[in-house]
Write a structure and sequence with these properties.
The protein is of the alpha/beta class and 227 residues long. The protein has a single domain, classed as Class I glutamine amidotransferase (GATase) domain (Rossmann fold). It contains six helices and nine strands, in the order E-H-E-E-H-E-H-E-E-E-E-E-H-H-H. It is globular.
Length: 227
């Protein structure tokens, strides 16, 4: 399996995803958007993973690479590739498919529960309630035809699925203690106390087993879209 990763900033990497892909003997390539790496062609990979980042998908004027990146994401979904979008990556999927991305009612930074949205369509199913790692201030409308998979008290659209093999996650299941430290160290200015924003001390007090729990759920997501 050939997996291509779109990375937007140096301090938000793939976290546990690389180890999970190594266990499946996947061949992994990475476009580092912050280094102006060239984008691949849709035929160059079997699965596409778009990671997070502090920018907005609406910043096309200041970040012109967003336009071709959105086109690649859209073409990958249309071609039936396995596609996973995480945080900014989920917003890229939504935007590339014509949905609106905008500031949410709440910033969510820290560990908060998400719960599945009941529906009758075959799709990925989340646990009844699971605490996951969040770091976002924007949200999105669901793309036309998308299945709403998960929500939280702080944000209605937490996860969605398009077709059989594309999933957008507003939250982070790939986070490890090391990757959490990286984003905290680079984005601690965003830790302004609010209802759904935890303190740095709270974020750093999280035990390793909680990271292992969300990494296991990430493994299930990857297995689902690449089945």
């Amino acid at each position: 399996m050939r997996v291509h990763i779109l990375q937007h900033v140096p301090f938000e990497g793939p976290g546990s995803i690389l180890q999970l892909l190594a266990l499946r003997n996947a061949k992994v390539s990475i476009t580092r958007m912050f280094e102006s790496d060239p984008l691949p062609l849709v035929d160059d990979f079997d699965a596409l993973i778009a990671l997070g980042g502090p920018m907005s998908v609406n910043d096309e004027e200041s970040l012109p690479w967003l336009r071709p990146e959105k086109a690649l994401v859209r073409d990958s979904v249309d071609a039936g590739r396995a596609v996973l979008g995480i945080c900014l990556g989920a917003q890229l999927i939504a935007s590339s498919l014509g949905a609106r991305v905008y500031a949410g009612d709440n910033k969510e930074i820290g560990w908060f529960p998400v719960r599945p949205v009941p529906h009758m369509t075959a799709s990925f199913t989340f646990p009844t309630s699971v605490e996951v790692f969040h770091w976002h201030g924007e949200t999105f409308d669901l793309p036309r035809g998308a299945i709403h998979l998960a929500q939280s008290d702080g944000c209605l659209h937490q996860a969605f699925q398009v077709g059989d093999r594309a999933i957008g996650l507003q939250f982070h299941l790939e986070t490890t203690p090391e990757s959490a430290d990286s984003i905290i160290s680079n984005c601690r200015h965003e830790l302004v106390r609010a209802k759904y924003v935890q303190t740095e001390d709270e974020l750093r007090a999280v035990k390793a087993e909680r990271y292992r729990g969300i990494n296991a759920l990430m493994s299930e997501v990857l297995a689902y879209i690449t089945r």
